[in-house]
């Protein structure tokens, strides 16, 4: 009976791992049970001679092994020829099918049979596949030497995993869905070498399916910890390699505060300041009652005990917070922590000498970092509230702000706290020309598995409540505090610089204005409306939205058009140079000298900012002018530009002079310095 059950288990639950192990398993089982059976028969049947016992055993063992192996081989071939037609019958073995494809790819150079078998399976799949977007339709799985392209195979397996996981049968079967997801996550981590994407898939599953089995929940916690470690190791290696390629001048500039410490410091501040404020109010109320007096000593004793209890609670919370955060925050080198301790010693402990000591440390740390570069995270920027942090959801609701919104964050973007709390997604704080590709940048990071934007600064722009742009440095890192969500942690450093920006595209369409330069350009223009009331019909106040929608930069700065044209043509010349001599060509190219002259001597590039007439009328005139210019064939073409797509977008910038003369000549002008 035991033998029958074992054979049934062998046939029905094939140990789908390795064909050699399977053969050994079959032979071992058959040898044992055949030998036991023959010996038992031999004991009761005296017609069998001892010399024939071995031949009986060998013959029966080979016959039975051959029979069982063919049964299993038939089952194996049936699974390997999986198609949409037999999917419902074989969906329990999807993981084995995909594992066998990968195994054949790994062992192709060890065994010619594996290579032949793999090409046979890939050809069969390509013939039977009904999905038009399947990767098998875009490749023949061969490299330039007609060998198997292993990366194409992995991409196909990845694609098949997603197809299987999205099927209705798998979606309804909780066990198979969990099992296949675990296989997929392991595949992405081990074979695709993309722990970030694996982590994203795991957290997305936990966010989508709240009710998971105990087995899956336990395995997911182990996988999360393992993948988080791999992410940190891979990102650290990626960061070290990128640092080697940086210039020495840039590598010498270091932040005095790390991004992890920023998160811990600001979190500590958010937890302690409300406690201090509440305690100060209680302290004022207590001493006011003492001044007014009590009817008896019992009332005084009762109020004193209540006040002492509040003081004791704050001491406990303070010690608990510092015991948890103390490992990551250096108490003697952090200005915010020094300030918090100073407040604590003063108002709670009444230790004025200790409070003065930490206050002196706070001033010293802030003063030491005052002369450091403004674009680095240092104690001065941290104490001046130029540094804030955000936690952003990636897998649940991409771009949603998960961290608590504070008054300091609202001040950074120019909002009132009540209005800032209505902002739900980070896209609302990003200029439109960046937000259109923000989600795609995140998707690229997930697919690539690493990014240069992590653990290092990246200068970009943010948007204020009024719509103006301002420069920031952003520092990104992974955040592993949520069990059901893949999150990113970002530190934003507001750059307080005298530089002002106008963002525009190659056609002169304005994408963003800094606040000061916008007022510098349009303030005097808008003041005309107040001074010339009689001419109010010819003059209107220009708002930011009107300027970005209706005005063109080359209308405001006609002479800049020629410089941009030179820039385009010089870049095109560089692309046509020999790649081997590109370094020498850059050094000898007039464009390089031109840019160096702009940087060293800005006075040579002074531009007239023109105050135009009505924005809407000017926009209509400009559109008519451009349409006539392009249709009439008056578009200026560079002799060296051969790319038709570039020609179609390359506007004849010098032609703006004619438009300038006919439309806005004689209006008030101011001078502005600029660098390209």
TrEMBL record:
The chain crosses the membrane at residues 20-41, 53-69. InterPro entries: Tiny_macrocysts_regulators. Keywords: Membrane, Transmembrane, Transmembrane helix. This is Transmembrane protein, putative. It comes from Tetrahymena thermophila (strain SB210).
